[in-house]
Specification:
Layout: H1 3-10, E1 17-20, H2 24-29, E2 36-37, H3 45-52, E3 60-63, H4 71-81, E4 87-90, H5 93-99, E5 118-122, E6 128-134, E7 139-154, E8 157-172, H6 178-189, E9 201-211, E10 222-230, E11 233-245, E12 250-260, E13 285-296
Parallel strand pairs: 1-2, 1-3, 3-4
Antiparallel strand pairs: 5-7, 5-13, 6-7, 6-13, 7-8, 8-9, 9-10, 10-11, 11-12, 12-13
Length: about 300
């Protein structure tokens, strides 16, 4: 279906119900004249459709963003699966309608992520690092908290960033027996692992943050590089992160990396450095999932 074919259908006496299946803010910004709205991304999609029509035989045309987006296709499939018998998808969407020079309704400005500028201070209650340590036969997981941190940006570009991790906040979440849990934490605190008594804080100082050109929404969009200090030893590390903001006032970022603890003096149980470990072997790498929330300082 071309844009002009759709326009002809919409001007006919028995015009179909035209439904844009994108979020409300997109509908408010740009829509084909005469459209109704029901967001296919919401669990309430069918409730929104029901508010538009109860007639499952009614002709319905759904559309979304256009090329490269499956919104209209998925919406049509959902409606057909729900028993609607006369559903079509206008795959060209907003892109093809606009390219054909046809009129659009709405405020005209599509929502865009705000530019980030200023100093953002870490929310240490909401930010955390989830860790997983493994060996061949078992694994344990838990959390460790940020002590403090801040990042300064200018028009989305990194100016400076520094974060400190409270190593004495290490907690294990998968061992329910309190004595066994405390035994593991004591071992992690010891010089076999993180030597918390002598090095209570680990620190990351960012050096660069590079946009990833091939990213899509929901995948890592930056490569973060910097100096990480653990047990008094500093090494350069880098890992991809996904960073975004909804309002320009709170920055949220997540990143995943496998940190080689032996590079920072934690050599206990390393099969690369010891022989005949048997059940005492521990993977060199600790898996980390970092979640950061930081708020703009006035």
């Amino acid at each position: 279906m071309t844009a002009h074919e759709l326009q002809t259908l919409l001007s006919s006496a028995d015009a179909p119900l035209l439904v844009q299946v994108l979020p409300e803010e997109v509908f408010a910004a740009r829509r084909i004249p005469g459209s109704k709205q029901a967001c296919v991304y919401e669990v309430a999609f069918f409730d929104q459709i029901a508010a538009l029509t109860s007639d499952k035989a009614r002709a319905i045309i759904v559309y979304g963003a256009g090329s490269g987006s499956l919104d209209a296709k998925v919406a049509a499939e959902k409606l057909v699966a729900a028993g609607f018998t006369n559903v079509s998808a206008y795959d060209g969407g907003l892109d093809a309608w606009s390219a054909a020079g046809l009129p659009l309704e709405g405020e005209g400005t599509l929502p865009a992520a705000p530019s980030l500028s200023g100093t953002f201070r870490a929310d240490t209650e909401q930010s955390l690092i989830r860790w997983t340590g493994r060996n061949l036969f078992n694994h344990h997981s838990g959390i460790v908290r940020l002590a403090d941190g801040e990042i300064t940006l200018r028009d989305n570009a990194l100016v400076a960033a520094r974060f400190r991790i409270a190593m004495d906040s290490i907690a294990c979440e998968d061992i329910s027996d309190s004595a066994m849990n405390q035994m593991l934490i004591a071992h992690l605190h010891s010089d076999d692992f993180f030597d918390v008594a002598h090095h209570p804080v680990a620190e990351f100082v960012a050096e660069s943050i590079t946009p990833l050109a091939t990213c899509t929404d929901g995948t890592p969009n930056y490569l973060l590089r910097g100096q990480f200090t653990l047990r008094g030893i500093t090494r350069e590390i880098e890992f991809p992160i996904l960073a975004a903001t909804a309002d320009g006032k709170r920055l949220t970022a997540q990143g995943v990396l496998d940190l080689d603890r032996t590079q920072f003096g934690s050599v206990y149980g390393s099969g690369r450095l010891f022989r005949f470990l048997g059940k005492h072997i521990v993977n060199d790498h600790v898996h980390l999932h970092i979640k950061l929330h930081a708020d703009l300082q006035s």
